[in-house]
Amino acid sequence: MLQKIERLAYISVARGCGFAALAIATFMVGLSGDMVSSLEAGGSLALLVCLVLLLKAWQFGRRSYKRTEVWMMLGPLERPPSTIAQHVIGTALHDSCLRFALHAARASAYLLAAAALWSFIVKGQP
User: Fold this and answer.
1) Sequence-distant (≥ 6) Cβ neighbours of residue 103 within 8 angstroms
2) What is the pTM of this model?
3) Which of 124, 114, 126 is nearest to 39 (CA)?
4) Are 3 and 92 in contact (CB under 8 A)?
5) Is 64 helix (H, G, I), strand (E, B) or coil?
6) Confidence bin at 78 (pLDDT 50/70/90)
7) Rounded distance, CA 70 to CA 93, Å?
């Protein structure tokens, strides 16, 4: 049961992050005429996603487990007893948010480093 809850928490957070990544990529394509601005915007928005995920991870310990997507994805017979459901589901969502926040932070670092490198090489400006 615990593995399924962790997998569903991963799917739930991954779906939200996927939509955020799609929005960031679309925004970056819109700015692709100026590559430095595009990379800087992508890095900044990825950092914003990281911040939101950190806030969400902090919030999941307090949020009612019955109002989470994981609880809705579980079948009535697969749901843990209410005595432990808050801890199990909250911890699974917390860990998934932290995992994806780390991915977003890495993506942000790569994009901002690429913007600095592109600016230095192509434009000759620091």
Assistant:
1) 17
2) 0.89
3) 114
4) no
5) coil
6) confident
7) 8
